[in-house]
Amino acid sequence: MALEIITDIASLRARLAQERNIALVPTMGNLHAGHIHLVRLALQQAPCVVTSIFVNPLQFGANEDLDNYPRTLDADCEKLAAAGAQIVFAPSVSEMYPVAQTMCVTSPPIANELCGAARPGHFDGVATVVMKLFNIVQPQTAIFGKKDFQQLFIIRELVRQFNLPINIVAGDTQREDSGLALSSRNGYLSNAQKQEAQRLHRTLQLIVDNVQQGNHDYAAIEAQSSQYLTQLGWIVDYISIRSALTLMPANAEDKELVVLAAARQGKTRLIDNIEFTLS
Amino acid sequence: MALEIITDIASLRARLAQERNIALVPTMGNLHAGHIHLVRLALQQAPCVVTSIFVNPLQFGANEDLDNYPRTLDADCEKLAAAGAQIVFAPSVSEMYPVAQTMCVTSPPIANELCGAARPGHFDGVATVVMKLFNIVQPQTAIFGKKDFQQLFIIRELVRQFNLPINIVAGDTQREDSGLALSSRNGYLSNAQKQEAQRLHRTLQLIVDNVQQGNHDYAAIEAQSSQYLTQLGWIVDYISIRSALTLMPANAEDKELVVLAAARQGKTRLIDNIEFTLS
């Protein structure tokens, strides 16, 4: 079955009008095996899978990489076709924002922490475009990756607080053998940076081991880890041990935890996280 | 056919699961003939009409009449049954807001003018609850009254900017023989205030006549009308001649116009408007 590439909202609505069970995979394109994993999860959820490819200006800050973000539609479509996806929705900016988006969804307070601290307005932009995509596609299920753990958390809040009749399914982070989380932004890295980038996940794994061995001085662990990476040339935005249930800083009572990090190699900002449980 | 009164979201969703064409009439209850007119319009649009009755705390300011707003569910249901409506959705505050609503829809800049100038945050509260109701009911059509002209304008923007697959139908303002626009807040008026309240619509009609006779000094007309009502004991929030298409202050080129007013009799805030066309 050939992949259908649809670029306008009216055509997509017409195509989906008779579908009763749709799964949506929202992406910004430049698809890698992490995205394809989400598409495969979607195909398990619903007979009709829509993968959206849209580099959303609203979620980029003024000094971020909107203009340089890799746009690789032809290659993306080949990968989607190979994975058995049926429909790609790849709208232009003017199709998604024909007039200035003066009405937005505001994010909860947690959106100002972690990635939001360095990217003001980012999660408002994410929540707004996801709300639009949900209304355009009207899926029964939507798939998001756990690599963007804070985004996933905010999307679940969006669904809950706006009563969206949509089931959110989370896909595990896909990694290279080195442990490096797959990311479109890995393509910005030099060979030496990519070599060093592996250390981010290793550092998170060391933190998990440390906590699971009984060290609950989370502030000290965070500070030491951050200092360690900084000494190795990283610019660390944050390393934070949090409740996986609330995303608030973890305390001694929390058993469901996640350690999250964002750090830069040169200009390239990488994020990663590991969820874990204390017994 | 008996009126079905549903108070929880899960039951409403179950009831509506098999409906293919639904019209929603969002109200705050205390129904009068203006609301019933909207219900009749809804019945012309769809075989299944849901009237929501919910006094939305999010759209009331700290010093407004949330606590005193009339709640008359039994009488409302009698009127709806008589009109042939099928379903009332009357949720509690905790059903609509089981957790703090930390994610909201922000309104466009026009929301800070006219009624929004005196009611900061009001239209964010309206847009947020309407988005929630749309997601709960998933109607094909929703009916709003023209008496809340600015609200109607913002709801149309909500639908447009968030790609909601919902047709918005506007119902004409219903009036007493005196011209007074029907409003739940009319119930707050003393007999003398209600007598005086007629003047609001008469003043708007005089403005329309004045403009249609060729007076295009809108600022002067607004100032004179405001002064006139103030001298008669009104507290005037605004009288404004605007483009009916953009809600921006009208200029000489605009042909589709609306004159809007908000003014207080004692503590009771009344609004009204008249749309008109210049040939």
UniProtKB/TrEMBL annotation, chains A, B:
GO molecular function: ATP binding; pantoate-beta-alanine ligase activity
Protein role: Catalyzes the condensation of pantoate with beta-alanine in an ATP-dependent reaction via a pantoyl-adenylate intermediate.
Binding positions ((R)-pantoate): 59, 151
Subunit and partners: Homodimer.
GO CC, alphabetical: cytosol
GO BP, sorted A to Z: pantothenate biosynthetic process
Species of provenance: Methylobacillus rhizosphaerae
PANTHER family tied to this protein: CYTIDYLATE KINASE/PANTOATE-BETA-ALANINE LIGASE, PANTOATE--BETA-ALANINE LIGASE
Active site annotation, chain numbering: 35 (proton donor)
Subcellular location: Cytoplasm
EC number(s) stated in the UniProt entry for this protein: 6.3.2.1
Record keywords: ATP-binding, Cytoplasm, Ligase, Nucleotide-binding, Pantothenate biosynthesis
Pathway: Cofactor biosynthesis; (R)-pantothenate biosynthesis; (R)-pantothenate from (R)-pantoate and beta-alanine: step 1/1
Matches recorded under CDD domains: PanC
Family: Belongs to the pantothenate synthetase family.
Sequence positions that bind ATP: 28-35, 145-148, 182-185
Name the record gives this protein: Pantothenate synthetase
Main location: cytoplasm
Top-level taxon of the source organism: Bacteria
Residues that bind beta-alanine: 59
General remark: The reaction proceeds by a bi uni uni bi ping pong mechanism.
Lineage summary: Bacteria, Pseudomonadati, Pseudomonadota, Betaproteobacteria, Nitrosomonadales
Known catalytic reactions: (R)-pantoate + beta-alanine + ATP = (R)-pantothenate + AMP + diphosphate + H(+)
Catalytic EC class: ligase
Gene3D superfamilies: HUPs, Pantoate-beta-alanine ligase, C-terminal domain
